[in-house]
Design a protein that fits this description.
about 525 residues, mainly alpha, Serine Threonine Protein Phosphatase 5, Tetratricopeptide repeat, two-stranded antiparallel ribbon
């Protein structure tokens, strides 16, 4: 039986104001009364709306206490493969409610296919192996399920997701391409399957491969209009392609910034980054101040980290080095090392640019300490070199200020090679001042425009449409006599800044006038 949540045409009339979550074909042995909640849970699971999905699966359990797949679904909400997160205790508690042992749980499954799905959960949660090993076992269980049910699009979609999750939060391009191909195959058969569209986007959301995911980005927000995460996910592609109005618009919707249902954090940080690229620095600043005030004492590391990264991106992209927000305290004791490093770098660069060398040196000490913290943390799965790279960037700035330009360039050239070797990034950059962009600015300052053009060009390959890199390219190309390259960059910058703040528009006008 096929169900479309938001319509549920075969079961119930749509509720007023209810929005679609997509379409799946997921036959199961649950009672009819449990179907709407269960299917809603699966659709939400595909869109990473984990908390709402868990609620829906518990509603299905209440409607049909013997419905094994409802417990399977809730258990699966406690693993977030692409975020490298897992609540093992919560998942095991759910399975224990279904049955005390794997055998007891299997006995409650209604079909062979459902027993295969339970095998997936058992592989993920029922051994004491490290998470990476259990993730591998889970992927193998999904492969076995697909051998028995090769046309099961949901099993195939979860398999694509798990392939990407096997790298424990760090992109493996070959694996991501394989997952993207699997998701594309599902999409061809089931165009409104939310998992297919979602996982296509995740597979291709780096600047090199983003064009392959553009169709999914344009479709996903419509077919899963009831999922906030679906609205945000489109911007994994839009941001990678430098599509700033779309990046802002979709994150406004996702975060509820246009209504009373406002959710600060990840979505709003992407929204602010888009505003900064549009030259709307005042809006980004005002929004950050609003978040800081409303989230004072926020208890989650995620939100605290967002506040730090948003300030860092604001300072770097607005270049308002003496802005009063540099002196505002941000209570973020639980924020991760990377957000703290980004904030320390931005504050240090701001201090250097306004001539406060003591404050810049203090930020450098902080960055080096954060770098040492991650170098000794073998459990950390993110890019542990971010604080170290930012420290080298700040050192280069201080060297340039001390008239050691050649040494600054040498340090930055080495670190650009290191950044080029990093796994492909998505979203606003953790290297909050991209190394090629900073090197280009220093080379231009040293009257070496041809070299600067090469650096800004490379910066734009890694971050298409980034406004500061475009601005640098205009200036460097003109200084080097390449007026055609300057005009192309100026045209794109003009599109970015067509509704920018007055100071950005004034700078754009001066550039157009040839000054």
């Amino acid at each position: 039986m096929r169900f479309t949540l938001g319509l549920l045409a075969t079961l119930i009339a749509p509720l007023p104001g209810q929005q679609s979550l997509g379409t799946i074909d997921f036959p199961n042995s649950g009672s009819p009364i449990a179907q709407p909640a269960f299917l809603k849970g699966v659709l939400l699971l595909h869109s990473f709306e984990y908390e709402d999905a868990a609620l829906a699966f518990r509603e299905a359990q209440a409607a049909d206490p013997g419905f094994a797949m409802a417990y399977w679904g809730e258990a699966m909400t406690y693993t977030h493969p692409l975020w490298n997160q897992q609540d093992l205790a919560a998942a095991r508690a759910v399975l224990a409610r279904l049955g005390a042992t794997a055998e007891a749980r299997q006995a409650r499954a209604g079909t062979e296919r459902e027993r295969g799905y339970l095998d997936v959960a058992e592989a993920l949660y029922s051994t004491d192996a490290p998470k990476a090993r259990r993730d591998t076992l889970c992927a193998a269980a999904l492969e076995r399920l697909l051998q028995r049910a090769p046309q099961d699009d949901d099993a195939r979609a979860f398999y694509a997701l798990w392939l990407m999750g096997l790298s424990q939060g760090i992109r493996n391009v070959a694996t991501y391409m394989r997952a993207g191909a699997i998701a594309e195959d599902i999409h061809r058969r089931t165009p409104k399957h939310p998992g297919a569209l979602h996982y296509i986007i995740h597979a291709f959301d780096d600047p090199v491969h983003a064009p392959l995911g553009l169709h999914a980005a344009r479709e996903y927000s419509t077919i899963a209009a009831g999922a906030d995460h679906a609205q945000h996910m489109t911007t994994h592609i839009f941001l990678a392609l430098g599509m700033w109005p779309e990046t802002v618009r979709q994150n406004v919707i996702a975060s509820g910034s246009d209504s009373a249902n406002w959710k600060a954090g990840h979505y709003t940080s992407w929204m602010d980054y888009g505003l900064l690229q549009l030259g709307r620095h005042r809006d980004a600043r005002r929004h950050w101040l609003l978040e800081r005030a409303s989230l004072a004492g926020a208890s989650t590391a995620w939100i605290q980290g967002a506040l730090l990264t948003m300030r860092a991106h604001y300072l770097i992209n607005s270049e308002q080095w003496d802005d009063s927000i540099v002196r505002l305290a941000v209570a973020a004791p639980q924020a991760g090392v990377i957000p703290r490093a980004m904030d320390a770098f931005a504050l240090g660069l701001a201090a250097r640019r306004r001539g406060n060398l003591a404050a810049a040196q203090a930020s450098l000490v902080t960055l080096k300490g954060l770098a040492r913290t991650l170098e000794g943390d073998t459990s950390y799965v993110g890019n542990r070199r971010v604080p170290g790279v930012l420290a080298i960037e700040l050192e280069a700035e201080l060297l340039r200020q001390a008239q050691h330009g050649d040494e600054a360039v040498a340090r930055l050239r080495a670190v650009t090679k290191e950044e080029d070797a990093f796994p492909a990034e998505f979203g606003p950059p953790d290297i909050v001042k991209p190394t090629h962009e900073l090197l280009g600015e220093i080379l231009l300052d040293l009257k070496r425009p041809v070299e600067a053009v090469a650096e800004f060009t490379r910066a734009l390959e890694l971050a298409p449409g980034r406004s500061l890199a475009l601005l640098g390219l205009v200036r460097a190309a003109r200084a080097g006599g390449d007026m055609a390259a300057a005009d192309r960059a100026l045209e794109q910058l003009g599109r970015n800044w067509e509704a920018a703040d007055p100071d950005a528009l004034a700078a754009l006008g001066q550039l157009r006038a040839g000054r």
